[in-house]
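Person: At home tonight, work slowly through the protein below, taking as long as you need, and write a paragraph about the fold.
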Amino acid sequence: MTDDRMEQTIGTLLRTGVVAAAVVVACGGVWFLAAHGSEPVPYRQFHSGYRSLRQIARLSGPEKVILSGLLLLVATPVARVVFSLMAFRLEGDRVYVTITLAVLAVLAYSLASAWL
């Protein structure tokens, strides 16, 4: 795989991921507004972030769709790193494979530590 081809594929991957995430979030937002748009907003109540899968399971359907879109947005750069790792591996470039593995480890640690 040439460098130009790899750059084009990565660019397409990133654009596709961002557009797909935006579409999913927008659909969830439209659904949420259709279901709850006329309700008064309880400004005196504050809901902190969700820290467990049980709390996420309690979300309504539109909120789950919006969260799925946001997770897709976060997964897009991770997919880019995984794709780069495979491309560097196919090229036989050990230095970039090592660097990309380190970046992937940092990403995995940061994503996993958010739930601990």
